[in-house]
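Incident log, structure service

09:12 report received: a user says their structure output differs between two submissions of the same chain.
09:20 pulled the input from the user's history:
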Amino acid sequence: MNGSILALNAGSSSLKFRLYEVHGEQFTLILRGQFDGLNATPHLTVKEASGKEIADLDLVLEENMREDMLGRIFEIIVPYTVNNPLRAVGHRVLHGGERFSAPVLLDDAVLDYLETLVPMGPLHQPANLASVKLFRKIRPDLPQVACFDTAFHVNIDERAARYPIPRRYGDKGYRRFGFHGLSYTYIAERIHQISDYLARKRSVVAHLGNGSSLCAMRNGKAVDTTMGMTPLGGLMMGTRSGTVDPGLVLALIETEGLSPADLKHMLYYDSGLLGVSGISPDLRDLLASDDPHAAQAIALYVFSATREIASMAASMEGMDALVFTAGIGENSAVMRKMICDRLAWIGVTLDEEANAANAAIISAPESRIEVRIIPTDEEVVLAKQTAKVIGEGEHGDAAA
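09:34 re-ran on a clean worker, output below:
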């Protein structure tokens, strides 16, 4: 297809967008923008691919905040789509459930099903779907495509997907799905581009950010992952607890009198780095603090990450490579060092100068496990998957 694609990545407190010009298989970034601080002081930044600043301002957004934001996006991109008409919008959607394992054109029936999955992703799924609905209101003529964070993990080992609960519940779809799939899709493609030999290795990819997960990967396919039916499980995160003993949840209900709503808020919003430190969910704030609770939270995060990396290695019966990506993984040399130092026992030896320089390979030559930094790009995956769906639809129409 030819034209332009708008890639939209909507979260609970931010909204990222990118505009790509598409000519056949070639995707060229034209514009990137982000709304931050949606739960406090909204701020908009927009830049052209060259780095030229288009907007950098605080916003006063009223009751119809998201509709206002999407309207602003259309205003911004109009001059850039005169010669390359906007063909579609690609949305990151957290959960596709059992029904969707590939990108899909959005219609009423698809949206109705995706609404039923909100309890499995209460932080992200509502924000994803709200943007879809508003775009349909603003531009009902414009095709919209859902690209799912769960899709990359659809073929994980059955032993990794199944929970040890009564079969009648497993048969209803209560299983592990995994998330951050758009990021892992990009990393898998980049690993293949770097080296077919690297792609054949047993790799653990560490997507470390405010939301954190790991994926055990080989030959571009997921073997296992740390998140489960919801994005609450696995590693300790910024405000999310990660995996905790189910008995703890029962005790909080029975002894502390917490309701399901109380528990949901605690585990999603008040736990993780924020809960343990009592200071911040942001590792940068904690690393800059001399509060002992900040140090305790950091130590627990590192402990959680290294324990889960070892579990991913066990799922693959070995480990040959470790890949860091996302906000913390790509940018925090301190956290990478702390994690790698705790993995010395399985053969990780860090090159400290390379790590400090954010080099592509940060393991020492003698390291048994190769350690890399690969920056992720979820939005270009959104654009490519969206263009494929639109292109297939056009091909089908032409064939008909």
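09:41 both user submissions now match this output. Likely a transient worker issue. Closing.
09:42 reviewer note: The two ends are 18 Å apart (CA to CA). The longest helix spans residues 292-316.
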